[in-house]
Predict the structure.
Amino acid sequence: MEQTWRWFGPADPITPAQIRQTGATGIVTALHDIPYGVVWSPEAIAERQALIGANPALGLRWRVVESLPVHENIKQGTGDLPALFANYRQSLRNLAAAGITTICYNFMPVLDWTRTELAAPLPGGGTALRFNAHELAAFDCFMLRRPHAEDDHPPEVMARARTWFQAASESTQARLLANIMAGLPGAYDRYDIPGLRRILDTYADIGADGLRAHLKRFLQEVIPAAEEAGMRMGIHPDDPPRPMFGLARIVSNADDLAFITGCVDSTANGLTLCTGSLGAGAGNDLPAIATRFAPRIHFAHLRNVAKEPDGSFMEADHLGGDVDMVAVIAALLGEQGRRRDAGDARWRIPFRPDHGHELLDDAARRTHPGYPLAGRMRGLAELRGVMTAVASLRGLPL
C-alpha cells in the first residue's frame, strides 16, 4: 500500500522534507483557498504540484485530492445545479490532466468531522481528540437551542448535559463551539451560534431520503466524467456516523455504502475506507466492510477509536481501540493482490495515518487539530509494520 500524508499546503507548519522523513512519499492535499463550487484551474493545480515537487530528491508527489468539496447547494438540491455540476466535472478533468486521479470527498451537510474535545489528556503526557456525547447534547439543546433537540439524546446523556451546561462558563461554551468547528480546514466556513442556526434551517425539510436523492443525482452527474477521465472517487464516511443537530447522515454503515455504490455501477464510484469514522458506529464491523467493499475502496484512512456505551469515543492508538486493524489491513492487501493479478496498473491502494495523538513536541508546532507530526509518524510506523508482517506471512504484495 502506498504511504501518504495529509498536508495542508504552504501554511502547514510541517514541511515536505519532514513528511519525507516519516517514510511517506504520497501527498494528500487540496486547494482549500478556492471557494466551494469554483473550478480548480490547471494553473492552480500546477502551482501546488510545483510546490510539492520543488525538491526532486524528496520523491514526493501529489497522490490524492482531499477533498474536492461538494457545494452545499448540491447537498440541498437548490440553486444553479447545472453550473455547479459542470464546474465539478471540469475540476475533475483538470486534475486528471495533471495526473492526479484519486479523489476523496464527503457528503456531510454543514460540518466535517466533529469532536467536542481537542486535547484530552493521555497517560504520560500527550493529548487526543475526543467526542463526548453529553457535551454535544449540551451544545445542541442549551447553546444552539434547537427545537425538540432533547428528543435526539438519551435521558442519561441529557442529565449529564444539564450538569455540564450549568457549570460551564462563557469561555467554556465558546471553546466547545470552537472545538465543534475545528474539523473544517482551510477556507471552510466557521459558524457562530446564529450562523449555525441559519444554515441548519436550510436543511429543515431535507431528511435522509432527500439527502440520498441529492447524492444520487450528484453521482449520476459526475461519475461518468470521472470514469472517462480515468478518475477514482472515494466518498468519505460520516464522522461521527450519526445524525447531528437535526442533520441526516447517509454514509454511516454498510447499508449506506451499498446504496452509494449501487447508485452508479462504476469502479469510478468508490469509497474512502475510514476505519475511525465507521469504527465509531457501534454496529459497524470494519474487517467485514473492508472485505465486502474491497473492489470499490480507492483510498484508506487508518486510525482507531475506543467507544463508550453512551456514544462517546476517544481516538486511540492506531493499533489500539476497537477496530481490528490487522484484519482490515489483511483485507486491503488481499484486494491489492487481486488487482495486481487482474492487470490493474494502479493496484496499490494509497493510505494515510489518519489523525494522531499530540506527542513529544507536537504542541509547539500548532498544527491543524488531529494532524500532528510525531503522533502521525508513530501511527504510520505502526501501520507499516503490520503491513510488512501480513504481506510476508500471506505472500501478498505491499
Observations:
- The longest strand covers residues 61-66.
- The mean pLDDT is 96.
- The chain has 14 helices and twelve strands.
